[in-house]
Amino acid sequence: MVNILPKFLQSAATPPKIQSLPSEARANSSSPEHILSDLTKSNPDSEPGISDVVISRDKWNHPRVNTWRLAAIFFAFFNFGLNDASYGALLPYIEADYHTSYLVTSLVFLSPFSGYAIAALFSDSLHRLFGRRGIAFFGPTCKITAYIVISTHPPYPAVVAVFSLAGMGNGLLDAAWNAWIGTMDQQNQLLGLLHGCYGLGATISPLVGTAMVTKGQLGWWTFYYIMAGLVTVEVVVGTAAFWTATGTEYRDANSLGGEGKGMTKLALKQKVTLICSAFFLIYVGTEVSLGGWIVTFMMRIRHGQPFASGMTATGFWLGLTIGRVSLGFVTPRIGERLAVSIYLVVAMVCELIFWLVPQFMVSAVAVALIGVSIGPLFPAGIVAATKLLPQEMHVAAVGFSAAIGGGGAAVMPFAVGAIVQARGVQTLQPLILGFLVLLLAIWLMLPRIPRHEHQS
């Protein structure tokens, strides 16, 4: 399971002294990373080349429990997509129901930020206390509580308040599952499928939400009956799948010569963590800003009918799904750094067409192509981070970065709403173009990934 580079074979004539593994290592012998960590600690005089050991990674079907766990995680990300894309589709109806302005309505985007911030700071600590089993339980429980309150059609301040609880649940799960899959074999493809499930949920959400309001004549809040039911299934399936993933198991597999305390602080000192955090902040903010305000833009600037305008949001999220699933197999072949740069340039061209050609159908096609182009960016960023950072920092660093990205989904759409309030919804297009340019600049700040690391 562990392959040693040729220079270690040169000393084969002199058999090394074999030390017995600690009892905890024997108990967790299914984890090659854990065994390697214990061997290194038990032999402090090992050669410097030990960092060159090639560690075999978990596969999607080995150990077998991973198949069930991946299914549970894919379902969780489907629910993420349903949640995030519902804001944009329901935004005009929330505004009309509560008689609020653009700026006040945009608070539904901003309020989850506090929850994401808490998740970013405490993700690694919660992992060490409760393991992935605890995350699989606490995350959906936060969301269920929020959805039940919203489905009662409470006053608007209560809606804004409980969305922060949903944000904390999403932040915990987003950080945990991205970090876990990011360390597996074929992580580009798996993350593409994972975020494709997000895109699938985001594709369905505007369709269902718009149809419930416009065709079914139901209140916008009834959509959250569905969300509460689905997340109830998520908490049961996820907790069962990760039942053996306890805090003890996590601490044993992710330690640095001690109990691993302060790992988040250590990860934040890494340049890669800060760059990835900025990248995810802008990327997720751009994605949700465009998906969140596109319906309003198409209704008021392109003069589309409510249902047709809602379908443009479906087209955007469908494009995102197609891009994540299909281009996830292309990205590792040409390398994350070059691939993401190409995707962003294509997205900029499509955004210019969307902005400068004032035709409803052209705008609908262009926004779908933007979705295809930016779809693979988040999975590629996760993979780049896991390749550039030590394994022990993955949950802390990737978790923090992903949670900050979730904060972008809160802060940036709110900022866009403030600008729309002051300047009009037509300002959406130059804002999105500027965000894409900024994304490319941040991405190019990442260190180069060694050529052999492009192989999954």
Summarize this entry quickly.
Helices cover 74% and strands 1% of the residues. The chain has 20 helices and two strands.
List the helices and strands and how they pair.
Layout: E1 2-3, H1 6-9, H2 23-27, H3 32-42, E2 54-55, H4 65-98, H5 102-105, H6 107-110, H7 112-150, H8 156-182, H9 187-214, H10 223-241, H11 247-253, H12 263-268, H13 271-300, H14 306-327, H15 331-334, H16 336-356, H17 360-374, H18 377-388, H19 394-423, H20 428-443
Antiparallel strand pairs: 1-2
Helix pairs in contact: 4-8, 4-9, 4-10, 4-13, 7-8, 7-10, 7-11, 7-19, 8-19, 9-14, 9-18, 13-14, 13-18, 13-19, 13-20, 14-17, 16-17, 16-18, 16-20
Subcellular location: Endomembrane system
Family: Belongs to the major facilitator superfamily.
Transmembrane segments: 65-82, 102-122, 134-150, 156-178, 190-211, 223-245, 272-295, 307-326, 338-357, 363-385, 397-422, 428-446
If you had to describe this structure to a student in words, what would you say it looks like?
The radius of gyration is 23 Å and the shape is globular. It is built from 20 helices and 2 strands. The model is unreliable at 1-54, 257-261 and 452-456 (pLDDT under 50). A two-stranded antiparallel sheet has the order 1-2. The longest helix has 39 residues, at 112-150. The protein folds into 2 domains: 2-55, no CATH class; 65-454, Up-down Bundle (Growth Hormone, Chain: A), CATH 1.20.1250. The two termini are 16 Å apart. By secondary structure, it is mainly α. The relative contact order is 0.14. Helix 16 runs antiparallel to helix 20.
